[in-house]
């Protein structure tokens, strides 16, 4: 059954459906952030698509527009220690569940980017849902969630770069670039790093630095 048929068969209106997507899942440092968004029947979000296909400038332009026009929106976060404790997939589910639970309007149906739905234990309640492969480029509500998650996370990482200098976080946002990996080798991991991820591999305890909070 195609995604479109399932969507139509459910009989849900657009204002009952939340799109969900994440940002930062493949990073070596920083949190994984999930966005959830319910769009109205009509909206004006020119160029809305997968956040990875948009420039940082365009994401910043869309970010306030989505928040202003959305029926409801929210983000959920899972930090590096939690990622190391339960693994990145489970931490991503937790972040998605937190985003959905924080929506001011309760959705009746979820559309999740990727190839997995959110387990019930992460949502805390039963909600009908489906996954949509490459949904961030197909489903506007997922696209909006993608922009929310990516922009929120990038802003957060720029702020955290000031607390954890030397890693170039504001340039690579925690992804495993050559410069980032070299900085980890030179300085050792900090509290933002995911210690269970390859290429981080701490030899000693993470260096003591300022608290995240």
What's a quick, concise take on this entry?
The chain has helices at residues 3-10, 56-69, 80-86, 88-101, 120-123, 140-163, 169-172, 178-187, and strands spanning 17-23, 32-38, 72-78, 109-113, 128-132. It has 213 residues and is of the alpha/beta class.
List keywords for this structure.
RNaseH-like_sf; 5 strands; disordered N terminus; Nucleotidyltransferase, domain 5; hydrolase; single chain; metal-binding; alpha/beta; endonuclease; 213 residues; 40% helix; cytoplasm
Helix segment count?
A: 8
- CATH H-level name... which superfamily? Ribonuclease H-like superfamily/Ribonuclease H
CATH topology: Nucleotidyltransferase, domain 5
Order of helices and strands: HEEHEHHEHEHHH
Query: How can the largest sheet be summarized?
Result: 5 strands, mixed
Cofactor: Mg(2+); Mn(2+)
Function: Endonuclease that specifically degrades the RNA of RNA-DNA hybrids.
Main location: cytoplasm
Pfam families: RNase_HII
């Amino acid at each position: 059954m195609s995604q479109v048929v399932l969507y139509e068969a459910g009989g849900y209106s657009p204002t009952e459906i939340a799109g969900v997507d994440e940002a930062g899942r493949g990073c070596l440092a920083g949190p994984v952030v999930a966005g959830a968004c319910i769009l109205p029947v009509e909206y004006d979000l020119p160029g809305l698509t997968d956040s990875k296909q948009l420039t940082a400038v365009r994401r910043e332009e869309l970010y306030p527009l989505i928040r202003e026009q959305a029926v409801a929106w929210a983000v959920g976060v899972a930090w590096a220690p939690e990622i190391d404790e339960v693994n990145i997939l489970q931490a991503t589910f937790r972040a998605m569940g937190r985003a959905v639970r924080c929506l001011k309007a309760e959705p009746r149906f979820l559309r999740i980017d990727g190839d997995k739905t959110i387990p019930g234990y992460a949502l805390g309640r039963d909600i009908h849902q489906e996954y949509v492969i490459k949904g961030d480029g197909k489903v506007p509500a997922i696209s909006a969630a993608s922009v929310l998650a990516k922009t929120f996370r990038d802003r957060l990482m720029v702020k955290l770069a000031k607390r954890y200098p030397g890693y170039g976080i504001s340039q690579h946002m925690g992804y495993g670039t050559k410069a980032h990996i070299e900085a980890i080798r030179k300085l050792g991991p900090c509290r933002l790093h995911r210690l269970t991820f390859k290429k981080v591999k701490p030899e000693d305890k993470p260096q003591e630095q300022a608290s995240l909070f």
